[in-house]
Amino acid sequence: MSTDPKLAPVYVIESIPVGGDNDVTAEEVDTEGIPTPAHLRIFEELARGAMGRIHPATDRNLLRHVALKRLDKELAQQPFYRDGFIAEAQITGQLEHPNIVPVHELAIDERGIPYFTMKLVQGVSLARWLHDPSRPPGSTERIAESLEVFLKVCDAVAYAHHRGVIHRDLKPDNIMVASFGQVYLMDWGLSRLTKTRPASGSSAQMEAFGPVGTPGYMSPEQARGTPSEMDERTDVFGLGAVLYEIVSGKTPFGPFRDVDAMLRKTCAGAVVPIDQALGASGVGIAKRLRDIVARATAPAPKDRYQTVVELQRDVVSFLRGGLHLPRKVFEPGAVIMREGDLGDAAYMIISGSCRAYRAVDDKQETLAVMGAGDVFGEMALLLDEPRAATVEAVDHVNVLVLGKSTMTEGLGLGGWTGALVRALAQRFRDLEHQVRSSGMRRG
After folding, report:
1. Cα–Cα distance between 413 and 411 in angstroms, integer?
2. How far apart are CA 262 and CA 270, in angstroms?
3. Where are the domains of the chain?
């Protein structure tokens, strides 16, 4: 999360030279009839965007697989699109970060078609990852694992902001989760410089008026289309929209029907409250995480997190606080844990209230009435002893469940630390037994 103040701002130039390495051969021609550079072997199209196409390729010089992105030949004749495409490659190439896909080469072939090559990422988009049925909204796997991905994307965006670049098209489709845990933020084609002035040709696309981004994920200021209104907080909204989908399985402005309707809702800042989105789907999420989502997707930039680092810090704090743990719901009168039973879990009340009591001479002695934020059953995580009390739900109760293995892994209680904590717990338990015994004798 730290940034290096010595890094220079990103810049772009207006054109690039055609070098000798761009010679072409007659025998290798792609589907558009455009000659292929001699050192590249291009394979069947992998993906297609609004302005160009992406092909897997082999770089014969470096003997490695790459992804080649090339502007459509019709657009290559228009300076607006050609210079914008070149600016994308130059900006991405200067953003050297573990979570930003690296660019290897930028060139223009003999017909004036610009292309660049980058790392070929083997993996799936976060959008596809989130739609896996094994990770439904609200599940522990979805929250814990996708938030780890999200934090890496925050690292990439915070670094780009430090270099003077805003992305302006943050969405799950532009986040790649690779096969061995790598995470890459892709597609910087709509990015804008905030610390330097680009050359006149390349600035046209960055400073063009009109909506920019992807409907459903763009901020209100992006939908209004005034570049001067867009800054780092614009990307905070984009990250918040990604987080909104992680948490609820939905996008901030509700179901997508058509572009015009979505743009009108976005311009108006009609974000569906995250509580409402979750309520409609019956997904239970910790209030702290809901608050983070709500602040990140606030319609007005002044009401959002002012930096990505602030947003990232709160997500890290949430994860460390364990609020992504499994949940259980108990109806009024249900026994959550019973006196005398052996237990292996503790509970934290999210909503509702519980009563803790002991059996004394065939009567119930109430020890405490607990509400949201209270924790009970914690001794079972440290000592292999029977439960000292029964806890039942007074009304509809929602709890987080902390298991022994989770606590041991999270707090590192396998060594001397665990021995010390268990010794302290045993002393408290012995003291409690002494107090109870002396009270019984006095009675």
Report:
1. 6
2. 10
3. 20-119, 124-320, 327-442
Domain 124-320 superfamily per CATH: Transferase(Phosphotransferase) domain 1 (1.10.510.10)
Whether the CB-CB separation of 302 and 237 falls below 8 Å is answered with no
C-alpha angle with apex 231: 227 to 233, nearest 5 degrees?
135
Within 8 A by CB and 6+ apart from 30, the residues are: 36, 42, 55
Please tell me the distance from the alpha carbon of residue 217 to that of residue 232, in angstroms, as a whole number: 15
**Under DSSP, is residue 37 helix (H, G, I), strand (E, B) or coil?**
strand
DSSP state of 383: -
With bands split at pLDDT 50, 70 and 90, how would you rate the model's confidence at 134? confident
In a 3-state reduction of DSSP, which class is residue 386?
Answer: strand
Question: Angle CA(125)–CA(130)–CA(136) in degrees, nearest 5?
Answer: 165
> Which CATH entry fits the domain spanning 327-442: 3.30.2270.10, 3.40.50.11240, 2.60.120.10, 3.40.50.150?
2.60.120.10
Catalytic amino acids? 169
pLDDT on residue 43: 87
β strands within 244-362, DSSP E: 327-330, 335-337, 345-351, 354-360
Residue tagged 């298991």 (tokens): 403
pLDDT at 372: 80
Give yes or no on whether 20-119 and 124-320 have one common fold.
no
Distance in angstroms (rounded) separating the CA atoms of residues 331 and 352: 10
Distance CA 397, CA 419 (A): 33
Check if the beta carbon of residue 244 is closer than 8 Å to that of residue 304.
no
Q: How far is residue 263's CA from residue 224's CA, in Å, rounded to a whole number? A: 8
Mean pLDDT of the chain: 83
Report residue 416 CA to chain centroid gap: 35
Half-sphere exposure of 314 (CA within 13 A, CB side): 20
Distance CA 342, CA 262 (A): 54
Give residue 405's pLDDT band: very low, low, confident or very high (50, 70, 90): low
With CA atoms as reference, report the closest residue to 240 among 222, 256, 227.
222
Can you give the pLDDT at residue 380?
74
Q: For residues 356 and 443, what is the distance between their CA atoms, to the nearest angstrom? A: 22
**Half-sphere exposure (Cβ direction) of 253: Cα atoms closer than 13 Å:** 26
Architecture per CATH, 20-119? 2-Layer Sandwich (3.30)
